[in-house]
Amino acid sequence: YNLEEREKVFKSAIDELKTYITKDYLSKNENEIEDLVKKFYRLFKKSILTEFDVIAQENPDMGGAFDILEESRAKLSEIEKYNEKITKNNEDVTYDIYKMIKHIFTDNINLRKKVNGYIEAFLKQTENFRMKKY
Fold it and tell me: Of all residues in the chain, what percent carry a pLDDT higher than 70?
């Protein structure tokens, strides 16, 4: 074997060992993954409560649409802060799973913020239209 071939064989052996150790670790430590998923699921359930229509239904006495948006933003900000506190060492065997779940959840938060922005823009446009019309 030349040096390149030895390097490929060595890298392949390391990758196989990593895969074996990861599978072995995950099968013995299912609770760690389950706890991680539960943390993000609790946050996801809280994020549902930031939806415009949910806040409007739960708070019928709230001032108006802009107040509902403000409430939604405040709740999303709180969830985002908690999301940032959930971390894993990148050397941890469960890091790849954590990274994937965190990416999906962070994307969910950002999309909810974007929807709030669209709602606000629509409300302002409607408000401006009414003012111009009358």
Answer: 90
Q: Kindly state the average pLDDT of the residues 125-131.
A: 77
Cβ atoms of 26 and 94 within 8 Å: the answer is: yes
Whether the CA torsion 6, 11, 14, 16 is positive or negative: it is: negative
CA 11 to CA 49: how far, in whole Å? 48
Q: What is the mean pLDDT of the chain?
A: 87
Residues in the chain, how many?
134
pTM of the model: 0.70
Helices within the chain (DSSP H only): 3-28, 30-48, 52-58, 65-85, 95-133
The structural domains of the chain, with segments of one domain joined by +, span: 31-133
Give the integer Cα–Cα distance in Å for 118 and 105. 20
* Separation CA 98–CA 86 (nearest Å): 9
- By the 10 Å C-beta count (0-12 exposed, 13-18 middle, 19+ buried), 98 is classed as buried
Rounded to the nearest angstrom, the gap between the alpha carbon of residue 99 and the centroid of all alpha carbons in its chain is: 10
Could you give the CA distance from residue 70 to residue 76 in angstroms, rounded to a whole number?
10
